[in-house]
Design goal:
By secondary structure, this protein is of the alpha/beta class. The chain has 13 helices and ten strands.
Length: 336
């Protein structure tokens, strides 16, 4: 495939501390055939002034062509709305999403696009997680390769799921024709897990995956002001609904086999455990709602097949026996 245009979409909202590094990394790509789309989602700080100053400098030094830069400003509607605006404005054969507090290596797009063949529907890569304590956790994929998204490659798909590759739009290239031909957009009413829902709306149309081993995307973890860091009393409901979206896709693709099934059920147990503890530690008077809802899940019967992989605790006993009195007792003892 000869140097297809890649659209880099960056939604921006009040990120003056980080956005300079992000935009500069996008403008510095070694791959030349990129367009940069900045969607200013009603920023009230100096984010856009920083962006414009960096863009002016790059264009003045003839390091980037201003005609390949689009800046779209709007009132604040949220990141999902902003990404949809970017998708609709993009002209590229492939779309890349970068969060405005993250950054990408100079070779990010080039190393992704060079791995593409004519049959590739999605490209995924490794990722570097930058922790609040300054640690960098680099997660490479097993190797650079392409494979069909089907049962014959269940091992590779299970490895991607185990690494949570499909949970976000980061470290990926998406084909714009698949997005447009199937009307795939972000759910603008979802405030949590919107990336996962977008990816799993896209995956049903994927026949071939290309994975790039190395990590060129830098993801900033643990920002206290990020949406994912904020408390959410509906978190279990959202986690569970997204888990069902995953299961539906894997069943549809004929991938609901033992290794992937075990992995998904253990993920579900993590959501259940977190949901129970969140309800117990909640100061809300309706904290019983979550655990009573959890105890009614039909998937608990399936979870019992994987009990040897789940630590034997009083929470496991209570969930498997579908009784809530230990939660009430523990909550009372803790003074909740």
């Amino acid at each position: 495939m000869k140097d297809p245009l890649v659209s880099i979409i960056i939604p921006i909202y009040n990120v003056e501390k980080y956005v300079g590094q992000c935009v500069q990394s996008a403008l510095s790509q070694s791959y030349q055939n990129c367009e940069l789309i900045l969607v200013n989602d009603g920023s009230q700080d100096d984010s856009m002034m920083i962006c414009k100053n960096i863009i002016d400098e790059y264009c003045r030094k003839q390091l980037y062509d201003r005609t390949r830069i689009k800046i779209i400003s709007q009132q604040n509607h949220g990141v999902s709305f902003a990404r949809n605006v970017g998708i609709k404005a993009a002209k590229g054969t492939f779309l890349a999403f970068v969060d405005s507090d993250d950054w990408i290596d100079e070779q990010y797009v080039e190393n992704m696009i060079r791995a593409v063949d004519d049959k590739t529907d999605i490209v995924v890569s490794g990722i570097c997680h930058h922790m609040v304590d300054k640690r960098v956790v680099k997660q490479n994929l097993s190797q650079t390769k392409s494979f069909v998204f089907n049962k014959e490659n269940l091992k590779e798909i299970t490895e991607l799921e185990k690494a949570f590759v499909f949970n976000g739009v980061h470290r990926k290239l998406f084909r714009s024709d698949i997005i447009r031909n199937n009307g795939i957009l972000y759910d603008e009413y979802s405030s949590f897990g919107e990336d996962l829902l977008f990816v799993f709306s896209y995956l049903p149309y994927v026949d071939r995956i290309t994975q790039v081993m190395d990590a060129y995307y830098h993801y900033r973890c643990g920002r206290n002001d990020s949406l994912t860091a904020q408390a959410n009393k509906y978190r279990f409901d959202e986690d569970y609904n997204q888990w069902k979206v995953k299961r539906q896709l894997y069943v549809q693709k004929g991938l609901w086999e033992e290794d992937l099934k075990r992995l998904l059920y253990l993920q579900l147990w993590g959501y259940i455990d977190n949901g129970i503890m969140s309800a117990i530690n909640s100061h809300s008077k309706d904290n019983t709602i979550n655990w009573e809802k959890i105890l009614m899940l039909k998937e608990i019967d399936c979870l019992k097949f994987y009990k040897d992989d789940i630590p034997s605790t009083w929470i496991r006993w209570s969930v498997f026996h579908r009784v809530s009195w230990p939660f009430k007792l523990y909550s009372k003892l803790m003074g909740k």
